[in-house]
Structures are given as C-alpha cells and as structure tokens.
Model the fold of this input.
Amino acid sequence: MTTNISGAGPSRTTGPASPARAAVSRAAARWTVGILLTLYGLVSVYPFLWMISAAFKDQVEVVRGGHLIPHHPTLDTLTHTWNQLHFFHYFLNSLQVTALTVVLTLGVYAAAGYAFAVLDFPGRGLLQKLFVALLFVPGITVMLPIVLLENKMGILGTHIGLVLPFVNGGAPLSVLLMTGAFSAVPRELRESARVDGANEFHIFTRIYLPLARPALITVALLTAIPTWNEYLLTRVSLNDESTYTLPLGLQTLASSNVPHYNNLMAGALIVVIPVALLFLSLQRYFVNGLVGAVKG
Done:
C-alpha cells in the first residue's frame, strides 16, 4: 500500500490564466482610451458643427436654437455676408498677406537651412542654437518694439508691415525643419555635383530643394495657417478698414450693436474653409515633412 505524502492540498496552476488576464486588461485599456477619445472628439467638433449649421440659418432660427440641423436651410446668410459685408475684399487682403509671407518665409529660411546643414562658416553652431532658442520667446513680448519700429519706418498700418513680422516670427521653426530636411540629403550628391561643375546655387535649387519638398510644404502650412488666422497684430497695426484681413472683418460683425449670429457664423465659416481645405489637401506631405525633419 502506498501513501501519498506529496502535499497537503491540490496544486494551483496560474500560468495559462496570466496571459488571458493580460489580454483582457489590454483590451479594456484600449476600449477605455477609445471611448475617452471619441467623447473628446465629439466635444471638440460640436462647436464647428454648430458654426456650419448657423451659417445656413436665418437670425430667428439661430436665436431660437435647440437643434443642430437647420429646419429651413438657406444660402442667403452666406451670400449676404460675402457680398454685402465686403468679405470678398477682406478675403483678397488675407490672401495677399498670407501668400507674400509664405513666399518670403520659404525663400529666406530654405536658404538658411541649407547654410546650416551643408556649409561651414564661423559661428554656425551658435547661430543655429540662437534661432532655436527663439522658439521659447513669447510673441507678445516683442509686439510693442515691432509697432514702434514700424512706425518709425513708415510702414505701420500697411500689409508689408504685417508680412515682415510674420516672416520673422516663423524663423525658429522654419530653420529647424529645413536644417533637418537638408541634413538628411546624402553629402555624396553635393560632392558629385561639384565635380560636374555645378555651383552652390544650382546645387541648392536643383538637388536639395526638390528632395526637401515635404519639408517645404510643411513650412508653408505652418506659416500660412497662423498668418491667415492672425488677429492680435493685425488689430494693433491696421486702422484703415480697406486694409482689413478676414479676422478683422469678422470682428466688425461681432462689434455691431445688434449682432447677427448667423452672419457671424457665416463669416467664421468663410475664414475657416480655405485653411481647412489647404491642410486636408497637403496633409500627407505635412506628415512626411515632419518625420523627415525629425530623422534629419
């Protein structure tokens, strides 16, 4: 007769259960994060949807509120805002300021990024660090010096008086992105071009710029969107209504004695649509430009 003395009780096996519990925990975490992000997205997008809805309502229906989908949708609000309230003129002013700012930013800081990434000159490292350090300087702290300087130069209140500060404000990030993009280009391409007799300008324009197209588009987007939406500096600088940009035109709607919220929301929609379409059409290049600059 044999006696079992192996243990006082049955053995417990926890090995197979641990992976199952871990999988359940991961699934629960994913669901929780997904639900929270969905709620956040709904809360974030609701004001935008309300803006679109109000742009297709009349004043009475907007004031009554209570529903997102217009009961009697109309295009009269958009056409009235566009035609009667001079929004087409404001649109052209914003387009002029934004386009000139983007062109100058790309021209100046693409050349600066190429110099920092490729050329050797005294003080290159220190100068590049100073540009990056400007990222941490709040723009509001230099607004008064800008206004005083432009007043002495005689360009305060003009569009060029807006463009120059906008170009200067885009320097730190633009230089950082373009330097990273150009640093990722193999040095052998430049050396081969020099052997073939190409000068520095041709190397820059025919080799480096085409290869850095995603970074250029990224810089253009990061310049165009805040320039298009800029309000504070334009409010301080521009006094003549004929020079107003879209954000200032929108402000004139809000400052009336009896604000018409449908017109205000239609004006906001006019301001938002161009930059939204621009970003959506160039989103792929924007992401590639950021990734390439970080890798560089």
Q: What stands out?
A: The first helix runs from residue 17 to 55. The mean pLDDT is 85.
